[in-house]
Specification:
With about 600 residues, the chain is α/β, with parallel strands linked by helices. Helices cover about 30% and strands about 20% of the residues. Helix 9 packs parallel to helix 12 (about 485-495).
């Protein structure tokens, strides 16, 4: 509530009819239209899991008690979009001049107001805070510097600052996710100097604009990036901020997952037949880690990896799920931005199927129809841990990044006793040494792999014999080449198309004694860009391990993605059955506006 003194001050300056109209406007904004917006799927407005609950809670944010709105579909990008939308609504309701800016803080939306309209702007924003509690602080302040926005004293204490942070906090119903100042909107006051308005601090485009520069109406998503399946509203800006910058990713970025679920009896029967030799050919002796059951066990990780993508990477265009004719029962195959691809659609030689070798499947990813030149390849046990921008994986000139591990490829030639991962690394090393005369030493981290289709195509041509052998290895073999996870990066590096990058990353071996402690720490701090949950050996108590993993994932990623059916069945279904019942399954949705794949 607004203190009486502050309320009287606002009432004196803002006419009662305007104040009532503004409050009514904010009620509408805070209900459905702005909260995150219109879900563009079949013309339906916000699905229930993305609607706004009409409750508020007191939550703890870095040791402080703060008021937050409970939003069923709370995401980082939605919080940013909502903050921008409410701020713009306040300014427009009061007839205040403003324009959106490509600001100093790249990932946060920024709004500029002429300094001579500051008092009026503050009055209107205080009314917004009266209707919907939120917080303000200096743009440079930490969470501890945020103050209640409906208190006049807060604004008076910030008068010396020309750039502010404005945030209406949100949380999901479990309160595992709270989005506050770090997902706020920045408000700048530009001083008039003659015929120009001067920026109070550097931004990424200009230091001043003509005071009478025309205002253009553009999508709000130009300044607060959202996924292509959603839309917010419009905003005003000036011409200088409508042009793409050299630092913008102007190319689309897709994501590819490979996925398998060994609970599918059809798939298991094929695997057992091939492994035993009943399907033809001579059964071969396999390394213990080449075909052990843990390699194929699904713990529903894909559901949570997609949640992490939805939560933290709104710049992704389309997700391709590559499977052996399987579809998770919970997956909404009609959702915008996802396409299921059968192995038979991408393997250049169908006689190589069925395959149970991830190296073989990875060798064919560049054959996916419609896949963008630049894409991320993920296993389903890899997760985004916090908001990330596209430039963590791709330079804006198209160079891809790769992430080297401290672990080294063992020395010496391939030996039959080598772990499959070590044998593959040695094969990659031999090819690079043969082509370029240099010796590679490091393995790669278990992160999302930024890839380019053109590099993968070149590898298929340059190393055709090795590529053919890898494609035809039905289980992991000492002859395999790790095309997507190693050779692509080093070949691209030697041909000037990839470079080293850096991610804050954690790998957790789920069979290790310290697994639970490390999961608890990860949940408490959420301080890694990406993480991988993996096991290379079978756990002595699979049910206990399952409970541990599910509990962690439910708490880390409580918000369903738009790819989930609300009443989906557990376990795999057959792709052929889904396609028979869904004539739109093969269609890749056209995404409009900012969602054309431009990642800013």
């Amino acid at each position: 509530m607004v203190p009486d003194g502050a309320r009287r001050g606002i009432v004196r300056r803002v006419p009662a009819p305007l104040r009532s109209a503004v409050k009514s406007s904010f009620s509408s904004v805070d209900a459905i239209r702005s909260a995150t917006v219109v879900w563009a799927m079949g013309g339906r407005r916000n699905a229930p899991r993305h609607s706004v609950a009409s409750t508020r809670r007191v939550v703890r944010v870095k040791g402080r008690h703060m008021h937050a709105l409970v939003v069923d579909g709370a995401t980082a990008w939605a919080a940013r979009a909502r903050n921008l939308h409410i701020l713009i609504a306040a300014l427009e309701a009061g007839g205040i001049d403003y324009f959106c800016v490509r600001g100093a803080t790249k990932d946060l939306p920024t709004v500029a107001v002429p300094a001579d309209q500051r008092e009026s702007a503050e009055e209107m924003i205080q009314i917004a805070f009266e209707q919907t509690p939120g917080y303000i602080g200096a743009a440079t302040a930490s969470e501890s510097g945020m103050r209640p926005g409906d208190v006049g004293k807060s604004w008076r204490q910030l008068r010396k600052h020309d750039a502010l942070r404005v945030a209406w906090y949100v949380t999901d119903p479990t309160e595992q996710l709270v989005y506050g100042a770090d997902q706020g909107c920045e408000l700048e006051f530009w001083k008039r100097r003659g015929e120009t308005l001067e920026a109070p601090r550097p931004n990424r485009v200009v230091t001043e604009v003509p005071a009478d520069a025309p205002r253009y109406t553009v999508p709000q998503a130009l300044f607060a990036l959202i996924p292509g399946a959603y839309t917010t509203g419009s905003a005003r800006t000036v011409a200088e901020f409508t042009q793409p910058l050299a630092e913008d990713h102007l190319f689309p970025i897709d994501v590819v997952y490979t996925w398998v679920d060994d609970s599918d009896p059809h798939w298991s029967a094929e695997r057992d037949a091939v492994r035993s030799g009943r399907a033809g050919g001579t059964p071969r002796t396999l390394h213990a880690q080449a075909a052990n059951d843990s390699r194929f066990t699904s713990r529903d990780e894909l559901r949570y990896s997609l949640r992490s993508l939805h939560q933290y990477a709104p710049w992704v265009r389309t997700v391709y799920l590559v499977t052996a004719g399987q579809v998770p029962g919970w997956l909404d195959t009609d959702a915008p931005g996802i396409k299921v691809v059968d192995h038979r659609e991408i393997f250049s030689d169908p006689t190589a199927l069925p395959t149970f070798n991830s190296h073989a499947i990875e060798s064919q990813l560049h054959h996916i129809e419609g896949l963008s030149e630049h894409f991320l390849y993920l296993n389903d046990d890899v997760f985004f841990g916090r908001p990330l921008s596209a430039d963590r994986f791709f330079h804006t000139n198209g160079l891809t990044k790769f992430f080297q591990s401290k672990a080294l490829i063992p020395s010496g030639p391939v030996d039959t006793d080598d772990l499959p991962v070590n044998a593959a690394g040695k094969n990659s090393r031999a090819l690079i040494e043969r082509s370029f005369g240099t010796r590679i030493a490091q393995k790669m981290k278990h992160t999302p792999h930024p890839l380019r289709r053109s590099i993968l195509s070149d590898i298929e041509l340059v190393y055709s014999a090795e590529h053919h052998r890898t494609q035809h290895s039905r289980f992991r073999s000492p002859d395999d080449v790790p095309i997507a996870s190693s050779l692509h990066h080093y070949y691209g590096f030697h041909t000037g198309r990839t470079t080293t990058g850096n991610l804050r990353y954690q790998y957790i071996d789920l069979a290790a004694d310290q697994a639970r402690r490390r999961l608890d720490s990860l949940l408490a701090h959420r301080h890694f860009d990406t993480f991988c949950l993996n096991d290379t050996v079978e756990h002595p108590d699979p049910e206990a391990q399952e409970r541990m993993i599910r509990s962690f994932l439910d708490r880390y990623f409580p918000v369903p993605s738009r790819f989930e059916l609300p009443d989906g069945v557990v376990g795999p279904t057959r792709l052929a059955d889904r396609r028979a019942s869904s004539p739109t399954l093969d269609a890749v949705p056209t995404q409009n506006g900012l969602a054309d794949g431009v990642a800013r």
